[in-house]
Amino acid sequence: MKLILGAAASVAALAALTGCDLQEDADTERGEQLFTEKCGGCHVLTGAGTNGDIGPDLDLAFQDARASGMDQDTIEGVVQTQIANPRPADPADTTVYMPANLVEGEDAEAVAAYVASVAGLPGIEAPEFIAPEFFAANCGGCHTLGAAGTTGDIGPNLDDVLPGQSPAQIAESIADPSAQISSGFPDGVMPAYADTLTPKQLQQLVQYLQQSVGG
Ligand code: HEC
Ligand code: HEC
User: Fold this and answer.
1) H or E segment at 85?
2) Whose CA is nearest to atom 23 of ligand 2?
3) Can you give the pTM of this predicted structure?
C-alpha cells in the first residue's frame, strides 16, 4: 500500500530529474514483449496484461502524472531513468527493491517508449489471453506437451504426469510450484505464476492443459 501511495509523488520527483528524451523510432512492439518478460512480474500494466504487485501499479502512477500535465515524452524519460537508476517509490524511503538495468540500450528505449504509450491511458485494454500461445511461449521450453508440439525436458513431461490430476492440483503447480515438488525434479527452477496470471487466465491455462492430455 505504501508503494502505491508514494507512486504519484515519486513520478513527479523523477520527472524533475529527467531531461526530455525523444525516442520516436523506438520499437514499442519489442518494448511490450520485453516489459512482459522483465517487468510484468512486479508491475501492473493493463496494456501488457501484467499483474505483478511487488512494485507500484504503473497505470495508477502515470494516470496521476498525466492528470497533472505530464506528457508522453516526459513519461518515457521517467521510465528510462527508473530502469537505469531505480529510485524508491516513497522519497522518504531509502530502500530500493527494483533491480537496475534489467534492460539496456535500445531495449531500455523500447521498453520506456512502450510504457509511455499505454500506462495510465483511459481505454487501454489488456491483450487477449490465448492459452496455447502462452504455453508455447512461456512453458514449452521446460515441458513436453504433445498438443503444443513442445519438447522441453527441464520439468516433467506433462503428457505423462497430468492425466488424473484435478484442476486445483494443476493450478497450484503453476501458481506456486514449490508447494509440492514433482519427485525427481529440483525445487526453485520453475517460476511461480501467481503474480503474472490472473485467476481467470490461470483457469484457462489449466483447462487447456487438461484438454491437451485428454482429461
Ligand atoms: C523485482 C521487482 C521489480 C521489477 C522486475 C521491476 N520493477 Fe519497477 N519497481 C519495483 C519497485 C519495488 C518499485 C518502487 C521503487 C523501489 O522501491 O525500488 C518500482 C518502481 C518503478 C517505477 C516508478 C513508479 C513510481 O510510481 O515511482 C517505474 C516507472 C518502474 N518501476 C518501471 C519498471 C520497468 C520498466 C521494469 C522492467 C525493465 C521494472 N520496473 C521492473 C519493482 C520492480
Ligand atoms: C524454467 C523451467 C520451467 C518453466 C518455464 C515452467 N516449468 Fe513447470 N516445472 C518445472 C520443473 C523443474 C518442475 C518440477 C519441480 C516442481 O514441481 O516445482 C515443474 C513442474 C510443473 C508441474 C507439476 C507437474 C507434476 O509433476 O504434477 C506443472 C503442472 C507445470 N510445471 C506446468 C507449467 C506451466 C503451465 C508453465 C508455464 C506457465 C511452466 N510449468 C513453466 C520447470 C519449469
Assistant:
1) none
2) 173
3) 0.69
Pocket test for ligand 2, best of 130, 133, 134, 139 (most atoms within 8 A of CB): 139
Phi, psi of 160 (to 5 degrees): -85, -45
Select from 118, 148, 173 the last residue of a domain. Answer: 118
In a domain, 125, yes or no: no
What separation in Å is there between the alpha carbon of 135 and the centre of ligand 1? 26
User: How many CA atoms are closer than 13 Å to the CA of 90, on its beta-carbon side?
Assistant: 10
Tell me which residue range forms the domain holding 170: 131-212
Convert the pLDDT of each residue in 26-60 to its tens digit.
799 999 989 988 998 899 999 998 888 889 999 99
Please say if the pLDDT value at position 111 is more than 50.
yes
CATH code of the domain in which 145 resides: 1.10.760.10
CA 84 to mean position of chain CA atoms: 18
pLDDT tens, residue by residue, 66-105: 999 999 999 999 999 999 999 987 788 888 889 999 999 9
pLDDT score, position 3:
44
pLDDT reading at 193 higher than 70: yes
97 Cβ inside 6 Å of ligand 2: no
- Tell whether ligand 2 has an atom less than 6 A from the beta carbon of residue 22: no
Closest CA to 129 of 198, 40, 53, 73: 198
190 ligand 2 Cβ < 6 A: yes
In a domain, 7, yes or no: yes
